[in-house]
Amino acid sequence: MTISISNSNPYLVNRIHNYFYNKGVQCMLCNDDTEVSLFDLERDEAELLLAAFTKHFHLKPASTLAMAS
After folding, report:
1. Do 35 and 2 form a contact (C-beta atoms < 8 A)?
2. Could you give the CA distance from residue 54 to residue 59 in angstroms, rounded to a whole number?
3. Within the chain, which residues score under 70 in pLDDT?
4. Of 45, 47, 65, 68, which one is least surrounded by beta carbons within 10 A?
């Protein structure tokens, strides 16, 4: 499974890249440093990583935001 995370702020994209790199996830910067792609993830591993990522960066999943509006 491959996951891509986009952000228009290159500083935040670099922080996201470093977060996953330090966790030992195979990842790389793409699209002029506005996107991080994560490679070779199992479904369960991806779900756990994304849950930890959203908690670490104090984010909410898009599905939660869609329900609120």
Report:
1. no
2. 5
3. 63-69
4. 68
